[in-house]
Amino acid sequence: MTAEPKPAELTVFVSLFCYALHKQAGIAGAHAAIADQVEQGVNATWPGFRALARLRTLANCAVMFEGSTLIAKARSRASGAFLSTQCDLWVSIDDDVETTLEGLTALLEASQHGIAAMPYWLRNGSQVACDLKTVEHAPSGLHAATDMALGLAAFPRECIVRMYNAHPELMFAHGTQQCCALFLESVKDFRWIGEDNAFCARARACDVPLWVVCDQETFHDGRPYALSFDRVDRNVAPVK
């Protein structure tokens, strides 16, 4: 597929979470490693930087690099940084996740319908974490979800604003930015609720649509996966 020319009006806020790279390079070497990976573009060592390079062919990108290993706080800070810009869309990328140019195109298109994510294998190697549901009149190429991993996902501004307004009790300051701890982890019914799971639960409570992109190859730690729209994949498992 040939990349379409960048629409001048499409500017996307991108948060690239470099926690794995940060661990590998260390505090002193992280900035140099990030700069090198950005310069390498689609030839970068880390998948997330290759995804960023492809995304830059589709949109103008304002990029935030975050190396914190406290991912619940890092994702929540990124949501506040996003709202402090004029961007209408936030794309979140983990450094070990990537998809093709076609996958990124599908992700951007999917975000017109709500929060959208690319599905991928979990590190346990045998399951894809997303809970699917059947809805009427689903957009082409998308499957509705009640829960999904957010290592490569797109968040429209109106969805994040709605969730911020619904959770004033979760607001916190980071420098001059007002952020909301939408990814705050918790325990419910003696079960640990991870940051992505907690976010999806808050999204559902606000009637924010959640969509999984189908039939597009996504790689997590180099392993490819594509959720088939024509069947419920037997490897898709409830998010734990």
Number of helices: 6
Structural Rg = 17 Å
Strand content: 25-35%
Question: In CATH, what is the class?
Answer: Alpha Beta
**In the CATH classification, which architecture applies?**
Alpha-Beta Complex
Shape: globular
* Sheet with most strands: strand arrangement: 2-1-3-8-5-13-7-6-16
Low-confidence stretches: none
The ordered string of helix (H) and strand (E) elements is EHHEHEEHEEEEHEEEEHEEEE
Largest sheet: 9 strands, mixed
Question: Concise description?
Answer:
By secondary structure, the protein is of the alpha/beta class. It has helices at residues 19-40, 47-55, 71-83, 101-110, 157-166, 195-205, and strands at residues 11-17, 60-66, 89-94, 97-99, 115-117, 128-132, 142-148, 152-156, 171-174, 177-180, 186-188, 191-193, 210-213, 218-220, 223-225, 236-237.
Q: What would you say this structure looks like, in words?
A:
This protein is of the alpha/beta class and 240 residues long. It has one domain: Spore Coat Polysaccharide Biosynthesis Protein SpsA, Chain A, CATH 3.90.550.40. Helix content is 31%, strand content 29%. The chain has six helices and 16 strands. The strands form four sheets. The chain has a nine-stranded mixed beta sheet, with helices on both faces. A three-stranded antiparallel beta sheet has the order 4-14-15. It has a two-stranded antiparallel ribbon with strand order 9-10. The longest helix has 22 residues. It is globular, with a radius of gyration of 17 Å. The model has no long low-confidence stretch (mean pLDDT 90).
